[in-house]
Hints:
This protein is of the alpha/beta class. The protein has helices at 9-17, 39-49, 76-85, 119-128, 148-155, 194-200, 212-216, 268-284, 301-312, and strands at 4-6, 22-24, 31-35, 58-60, 90-95, 110-114, 132-133, 161-163, 175-178, 185-188, 205-206, 230-234, 246-250, 261-264, 289-293. The protein has 2 domains: 4-206, DHBP synthase (Alpha-Beta Complex); 230-312, 3-Layer(aba) Sandwich (Rossmann fold), CATH 3.40.50.
Amino acid sequence: MHTILTTSIQRASNFIQKNEIVAFPTETVYGLGANAFNGDAVKKIFVAKGRPADNPLIVHIGEIGQLPSVVSKIPPFAEKLMIEFFPGPLTLVLSKSKKISTAATAGLNTVGVRIPKHQIAQKFLKECGVPVAAPSANISGKPSPTTWQAVNHDLNGKISCILKGNPSRVGVESTVVDCTGSAPIILRAGGVTLEQLRRIIPSTRIGKKNYQDAVKSPGVKYRHYSPLAYVFIVNGSEETVPMKSSAYIGMQRIGRKNFGLTKICRDQNEYARSLFHFFRECDRKGIQTIYCEQVSEDGIGLAVMDRIRNAAVQ
Ligand code: AMP
Ligand code: MG
């Protein structure tokens, strides 16, 4: 298959309407989209990515008016979260409408829905005219793509089109929040922080992995975000072995300079924005060991540490 690279929203949305799959930029990471009403279109995503069929996709819309075609019920606390955080890096899990394909929800009767806060993404989604099911646009298990070049590296020849945009501003995926119970439960940490959610709904809690909550969000059980190198979590430069074949990313400036690759981040936002890109750069350079500095798990640090821990699982 020939993959078309374009900046034309019209050209890209035409492929969605023809039930083909298209990668597009968002503020979190690049997504790989298909018409969420059409099971055959959605299945192409699972094939291109090599994604397990029991891992549901997030359904993206360009404006709130499209919501009734995606979800069937919205509890009052979920509405409050939407008012505050839509559009933005927040996915709400709600009861699904009949029109959304069960291929997109992996057979669940719930659906994760999000409106990206990204001009090109919004225009593209409005132009598509249908809800777009989209996971991250990477080969399953690899670090999520934050540039169109990373998408092209993983999926060239496997998808119809890449809508080119700037590098993603947030750099980690959306926060997934289960809204099917009596209070919000975070199934996956992401761009909207626990503190922000609690300011609106104080009873918001973090789901426990390996328990019922994990079963609710099948994606969390898979290995994710992994570069080719071994990833180690460290608390300071004394825990690292600087070599040409090793790399370091963190916020602490380190004295020794003989790593193959180093990234020092000003704050946790820059750490989030840089992490996946850094992993991919390490792969390109043949780095064998990546040291990631541990950061405090407040704000977006919770999502950063979640991704690093996942990448560090051997
Ligand atoms: P990705 O699209 O690769 O960012 O992964 C989507 C994440 O959202 C995975 O962790 C999924 O398990 C989760 N997710 C999507 N839809 C649902 C749903 N209906 N219920 C629970 N989790 C969901
Ligand atoms: Mg993903």
